[in-house]
Design goal:
Elements lengths: L2 H9 L21 H6 L23 H5 L6 E7 H13 L6 H15 L1 H6 L2 E4 L4 H7 L3 H13 L8 E3 L11 H8 L3 E3 L2 H4 L3 E9 L3 H12 L4 E9 L4
Parallel strand pairs: 1-6, 2-5, 5-6
Antiparallel strand pairs: 3-4
Helix pairs in contact: 5-8
């Protein structure tokens, strides 16, 4: 660590990205000892479609067996219940500085657990926010993650091609059918050539019902994407 970085930490002490506890100055840890020992990475048997934990010999979880998802596969680093406080701070308390360590953690997870996918990925794309909503918040958390993951795995990132062209109601307030109608037609691709023939990795903070990711995937496939997968910081085990 550079001397100037250590000095900066005296004014802005490093904190655990999951629980917020102060970390030792001069170190490069991003998790406190307690979180390192208690927070569980997504390992073991997971649904090969959405990344949720499964407890049977089936390839897909019960939800994905019934859903008509078009994306090829999804990966998540954590279960949402383990990191919900960290994500809430990240999204709603404007902790933009958390983006880089969170994304480094995601990038390390991808390179360690899914090195073949990291190698095959040709383009990272964040799930976009509606422009006016992003201006109010000041940033799109998925975009911040995508940019930093892009640097970590050394793959290009496109942040202005996939666009959300209309505002939508919060998906959490709607039932399954309402969610589909709410998000339908909400996304467009402006530059088809950038997408055509590529393996695209969609980046989002949390995978919940899959409705938004699926709608983005449809638009990307319609624009000529060869493969569409998603990578999220966390997945909601039940919705």
């Amino acid at each position: 660590m550079r001397f100037c970085d250590i000095i900066l930490q005296w004014f802005y002490p490093p904190r655990c990205i999951l629980c917020g506890k102060l970390l030792p100055i001069g170190k490069q840890e991003i998790l406190c000892n307690e979180c390192q020992n208690t927070v569980q990475w997504k390992e073991g048997a997971v649904c090969q479609k959405c990344g949720r934990s499964i407890y049977t010999s089936e390839e897909y979880c019960e939800r994905c067996q019934k859903a008509n998802f078009v994306f090829e596969k999804g990966i998540a680093v954590f279960s949402y219940s383990d990191v919900k406080d960290a994500i809430a701070h990240f999204k709603f308390h404007y902790w933009k500085r958390d983006a880089v360590p969170l994304a480094k953690l995601m990038g390390d997870y991808l390179l360690t657990h899914y090195p073949k996918l990291a190698e095959q990925t040709e383009l990272l794309i964040p799930v976009p926010m509606y422009e006016k909503k992003q201006k109010i918040r000041g940033f799109n958390q998925s975009e911040l993650l995508a940019k930093a993951i892009s640097e970590r795995i050394e793959k290009p990132c496109s942040v202005n091609n996939l666009k959300r062209i209309r505002n939508t109601q919060p998906q959490s307030l709607l039932n399954a059918e309402q969610r589909k109608q709410n998000i339908k037609g909400a996304f467009i691709v402006e530059n088809v050539e950038e997408i055509n023939g590529k393996t695209v990795l969609l980046i989002d903070d949390v995978f919940t019902t899959g409705t938004t990711i699926n709608e983005c995937s449809k638009v990307l496939y319609e624009s000529g994407a060869k493969r569409v997968l998603f990578f999220s910081l966390a997945v909601a085990e039940s919705t």
